Amino acid sequence: MFGSLGSLRQGGLEDQSGYVVCVGGKWSATPVEKREIRVEQHVLAQWRRKLILGFILGLGVVIGLSFYADLPELLEAFHHWRWMYLPLVLMCVVSNYALRFFRWHYYLSVIGIDKVDWKDSLGIFLSGFSLTMTPGKAGEVLKSFLLKQVHGTPVSYSASIVVVERLTDVLGMVLIASLGLASYHFGSSVLGLTLALCVLFVVLVQQQTLIRRVFDAGERRARVKLFVAPMRNLYESTYLLLRLKPLLGGIAIATVGWAGECVAFFLVLVGLGLLPSATLALQSAFIYALTTLVGAVSFLPGGLGATEAGMAVLLTRMVHLGRDASAAATMLIRFATLWFAVVLGFAVLGIFQRSLSARSRCIDA
Fold it and tell me: What are the residue ranges spanned by the domains of the chain?
């Protein structure tokens, strides 16, 4: 499923960096790009190992929560959960996916990749979920590999979308979690540090003249010259995405989209028998956003361990749930978000890869 990645070949004019300038919406390979392909294959091999590690860690988290709650009581909590809420929970999660897909497709147009069919774009976007179980969701760069197969765009150029997606997701979560700071006086240091790092990154990217000078200096050094072209590609597309309009639009979409998963968490708690209220809604949003951020900055695969531990503890302390109900709520929302995304991603990836193989056979014929 993660085999070698081909690229479409088109004529074009080679720039001084060794890459081919985009002509007619397509890119072609050069010796530099061929070396990049070997690097890509090495990265994919690393992702396979990290994915296996993620599944092992996930099993360990389930076992840990079972001990935390006491297994018989945990099973009893699952038995009493109102399963009629499951379709509503999944609808909220899917609404987040829909908004984030819109952002992905919009970002493609921002960096000049506007000739990708929306069906291919959706297949690429959902396939990226298959590697959600990598640290910081870095494995979602798989979308750039698939985009290269479909459109021929260098991975180093489109990978900026994944970077900015994560940035705007984090900023959206910070905004959601900030709603609870006035009522719950903890977590401010995590939110403040995260916000400061995000702002610093955005400001740094805006220093276009300085960064281009750094690249120009790097091209004069033999040891780093090979890496300058892909890094310049990554920077130039990132700069386009972090202009005011796409940045604010991305943050707005992320905030609304992740609010949908906060609603899903609220419904999970209501399904456990808690009375729906504004207080519970605020607690749900604060706990879900804060613990998701903690999982993100932990750089554990899928935030596994850090997110679940935070959720279970905060549900016990803030919502005053027993350990059994806290563990059950944590496992339910993670199955409906993280694990549902991974399963969906693998299913779509398999279908999409077969579709690409069929197209390739038709072209060869």
Answer: 31-364
